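Q: What would this chain look like folded?
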Amino acid sequence: MYNYSRLFQDLDLNSSIESESENEYHYESTDYLRESEGYSDMHDFRNGGGDRTISKHTVKSAMNWDILDNQSLHVGIILGQRKQSTKTSEKVDAFSETYRYYHRIREEEEYTSEYYYKTVEDKTIRWNFNSRQRTIQIPVIYEYDISKRFDLLAGINRTMNFWKIENSTLVVGSKLF
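A: My prediction, written as structure tokens:
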């Protein structure tokens, strides 16, 4: 017996992340001063789409042997192949900015530091994923007819899977700094 199935899916990709924070700290005593402040701001907006295709082929066969009048042996083989292909393209607009300031005076010793970092990304991510699975399955069933109403079945099944997976990601950036 042969069976074939195919699935096609349209994929819609959307995500949005936004975060911002501020901090400020001040401590002062007679011979000590410590203060700091900072902020952080970021967003990451993504949207895009793609498609996924899955196809399956299955071939099944079985042989039955009557060993005695009330005993039989059933041996089968099932061969399968499953292929999947996923392709997406996603537009990314990302921004991140961080600023930190620290100042300390301790017994006539003074220390100050500042840090600033900014990232802007305007890019497209293209992702291709392909997989192939091949399967061999061998079921063996022993059947013993105890009476007209009852049978005793004992079985064993061996399944072997073989995979091949390919993945590629391409980032096309128009603004990365």
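Strands lie at 2-28, 32-68, 71-106, 109-145, 151-176.
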